[in-house]
Amino acid sequence: RSADPAALGGTLRLSGRLSAGNDGSHMPGHNSTIAETLREMSEATRAWDWQRAAQIADRALRGGGVHPGFYNTRAIWAEMQERHEDALQDYLRALPHAPERPTLLKAIGLCLVRVNRAADAIPYLEKAVALAPQQSASHFFLGWAHEALANKDEAQRQYLRAIEIKPDDVQALGALGMMMLRNGDNQAGQDYA
Description:
Elements: H1 34-46, H2 50-62, H3 68-80, H4 84-94, H5 102-114, H6 118-131, H7 136-148, H8 152-165, H9 170-182, H10 186-192
Helix pairs in contact: 1-2, 2-3, 3-4, 4-5, 5-6, 5-7, 6-7, 7-8, 7-9, 8-9, 9-10
């Protein structure tokens, strides 16, 4: 995921004042624009102050602001605290505003696997792969979801695809190696792990 919340893009104008208007791009009671709020969040994330960034996003959302970057930032902070269900809910709230973003789809899939809903993760991860077939992480996460469902052949296929795209993909190499070791293929497992 990008460290810049504004990188998610979105459907909203970034020039309106958040304190006036009623078109959904404004927040009552705050005298800043969405662009200013996104910049403030970006500064916090660049300083690796995700807690502050999440507080800014939360303030914006509670004030009526709507932007996928607000949800994304709050979700990343929730993930860092291992509050995966909360993260999932925020990612799902961002989805209507950025439905074709592979990074968002991967994040939803990852959270679903982490809350033991791997079967629900598959369609999101398949869409992420379809939208960005050359991103090794998309294939890795899809493989991980399949492995959680004991779909070993498909998991292996996705891990191998991730490695084909990025030969030094440590996550895919490790996952494939561990899967092979669990299946009793010690030599292949050691080769990948």
